[in-house]
Design brief:
By secondary structure, this protein is α+β, with helices and mostly antiparallel strands. The chain has one domain: SecB-like (Bacterial Protein-export protein SecB), CATH 3.10.420. Helices cover 20% and strands 31% of the residues. It is built from 1 helix and 4 strands, in the order ββββα. The protein has a 4-stranded antiparallel beta sheet, with helices on one face. Strand 2 and strand 3 form a beta hairpin. The protein is elongated.
């Protein structure tokens, strides 16, 4: 599947400090929650918007030192309008992987600008979402 990356925009950047008391030897489990949404405008079937978000939220059961919401949207233009369902899923997986480094950088920069230890999300060499792992049995370049 051939496509052009048209750009990226930020829908949300949010950071809130939580005054949480943490014991000196206590380890925090941040547990970021990822979400993805794919949208196509009705008037242009070649245009695809992929939203990739990460959220960290403190709860009473699992306190976190901060709440964080980052949502980026990548804009892609497909070469043609009609693709098979497998080709579309492969495109969404590949596009998600291309957006992830931008999301990772936004989280690191946002936390660094809040004057706390920067949070570095892990580098990933495969799909982020479990539902993509069964489809990703081929190399990304095989889809083009």
């Amino acid at each position: 599947m051939k496509y052009d990356f048209r750009g990226i925009t930020t829908e949300e950047l949010s950071y809130k400090l939580n005054r949480v008391q943490i014991a000196p030897n206590q380890r925090l489990d941040i547990k970021p929650q990822f979400a993805r949404q794919v949208r196509k405008p009705n008037d242009n079937k070649k245009l695809v918007f992929i939203s990739l978000a990460v959220k960290i939220e403190s709860t009473e059961q699992e306190p976190k030192p901060f709440n964080l919401d980052v949502n980026l949207v990548g804009v892609y233009e497909l070469e043609k309008e009609d693709y098979t369902q497998q080709e579309e899923r492969a495109f969404v997986i590949e596009a998600t992987q291309s957006l992830y480094p931008y999301l990772r950088a936004a989280v690191t920069n946002l936390t660094a600008q809040a004057y706390v230890s920067p949070l570095n999300l892990p580098v990933l060499n495969g799909p982020i979402f479990p539902e993509d792992r069964d489809v990703y049995a081929f190399a990304p370049g095989d889809v083009n």
